[in-house]
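Apologies for my clumsy wording, but could you write out the amino acids of a protein and the tokens describing how it folds?
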Amino acid sequence: MKDYFYYAQIHTQGEDTTAPRKIEGTVELTVVPNLMRALGYYPSESEVGDMMVELQQEAADKGLPDPTVINFERFIALYVNHRPVFGVGKDQLAAAFQALGADPYLGTMDCDDLLQALTGEGEPMSHSELEECLQALTGSTISSVYDIIPPQVEAKQFAEDILGFEDYAVSGEA
């Protein structure tokens, strides 16, 4: 965890420099969401907003201006207090597919329906954001989301092929 934090400090000062770096033990608040993601917690924009409000309120309670940086100890507390207790597993993913309209018997979902849900519901993503996410998740260069998501997709296939879950057990297994 500290390595990610140190890297974020270096990254914000520029990676391609030979100039001495000033390591002050803080990172800019703008990198906090990416640090959370590096640790396996993928906060929504709303959750990120809640974290920022919390930090602003703490500063206001102490009579300080809104913070622009966070130290490692406060980052750890923010992470521990906001991340879910359990990660996303196969049951949650299957339930999400069902909630989005997957076939109740086959568990499959039409690619276009999945794309519509991802780009139009909850915290919607633009089509270009979705393509960027799929490229990052799969490590593939794509010209279209259809290069990654098949016409009919099921939760297990989505988990393994796109999200990279390795321990996704087949229904009926322990």
Remarks:
- The chain has two domains: 2-82, 90-163.
- Residues 135 and 152 are 19 Å apart (CA to CA).
- The longest helix spans residues 45-61.
